[in-house]
Every structure is written in C-alpha cells, then in structure tokens.
Amino acid sequence: MALPLIAAAASVAGTGLQAFGQIQGGKNAAAAGRYNKEAAYREAESLEIQAQQEVAVASINAQRIKKRADEIMAQNRVAAAAGGGSTLDASVVAVSQEAVKNSTLDQLLLMAEGEQRGQDLEYQAEVTRAGGRYEEWQGKQRRTAGYISAAGTILQSAGSMGASFGSPSGGTLASQKAAKVGKGP
Fold first, then answer.
1. Are 135 and 40 within 8 A, CB to CB?
2. What is the pTM of this model?
3. How far apart are CA 81 and CA 179, in angstroms?
C-alpha cells in the first residue's frame, strides 16, 4: 500500500514542479518583454537625438554657405571698385546675383536633406518603439500562456490521479464497478 502512496506523492510533486516551471517561464518571458521594450525606447530616444543633430548640422552648413557667398560678393565689390568700376555695373550685378542664387539653392538643398534625414530617423524611432511595445505584448501573452498551461497540467494530473484512485490495477472507477457487478455477492 505504501508504493501507490509514494507514486501518488511523486506524481503530485512532479505536477507541481511542472506547473511551477510553466508559470516561471511565462513570468520570465514577460520580464524579457518589458526589458526589450525599455531597450527599444532607449534606442528610439537616441535616434531622435540623431534626428535633431542632423537638422542642426544642416543648418550650420547652410550658414557656412551663406557666409561664403557673402564673402564672394564682398570680394566682387572690392574688385570692381579697385578696377575703377561700380558695384552697379551689369557684370558685377550678374555675378552677385548668380552667387546669391547658387548659395540660396545650396542652402535650401542642405536644409531639405537634413530635414529628410531627421524625418527618417524620427520614423525609425517610432518603428523601434512599436517593436518594443510588441515585444512587451508578446511577453505578456507568454506569461498568460504559462498560467494556462500550468492549470492544464494540474487539471490533467488531477484527472489522471482521480481516474486511478483506489484501483490496485490502475483502472478507472467505472471499470472497477463493472468488475464488481460481474462477480456477484
């Protein structure tokens, strides 16, 4: 009689350990999901900083182009005055206008490129955040699955033990009753 009790105790302990492992696995998956979300948010913040830096660098480079254009126009005025001409001469005006036009286009192009790189990085940051939220959601789903799996393990084990409880041959209660009915009093 001691052997069936030992087997039942071992079965209960095994079921408990299996359920515990399933629950812990789910909790660990949820913790990993939270960690991955936090890491994704940190990465997104870094991308947003890079986006701001791209725009700032483009702005600084555009200012440098403007400064260089101003220097060229000043040199043209000095050269025209030194040659005895006027800064209102058609050739001086044409060169100055061309310099202004080219520098303005270069500035606009640099700013547009910087803005585009910044927007790309902002989009990448949002995609990274969404990935982090998804990782967290998956972790929560795995935790829930761990609880459900643990409950299923416990119920399955309880059902198996209940079916064989009291049966020396391990049969079900219905088969034991059927065997008794056929034997008579």
1. yes
2. 0.68
3. 125
- Can you tell me the distance from the alpha carbon of 18 to that of 149, in angstroms, rounded to the nearest whole number? 10
Of how many residues is the chain composed?
A: 185
- CA torsion 38-44-45-47 (nearest 10°) is 150
Distance in angstroms (rounded) separating the CA atoms of residues 131 and 121: 15
Span between the terminal Cα atoms of the chain, in Å? 25
Q: Quick one: 180 exposed, middle or buried, by C-beta within 10 A (0-12, 13-18, 19+)?
A: exposed
Percentage of residues of the chain with pLDDT beyond 70: 88
**Of 149, 162, 172, 151, nearest in space to 8 by CA:** 162
- pLDDT tens per residue across span 18-69: 999 999 999 999 999 999 999 999 999 999 999 999 999 999 999 999 999 8
**pLDDT tens figures, 92-140:** 788 888 888 999 999 999 999 999 999 999 999 999 999 999 999 999 9
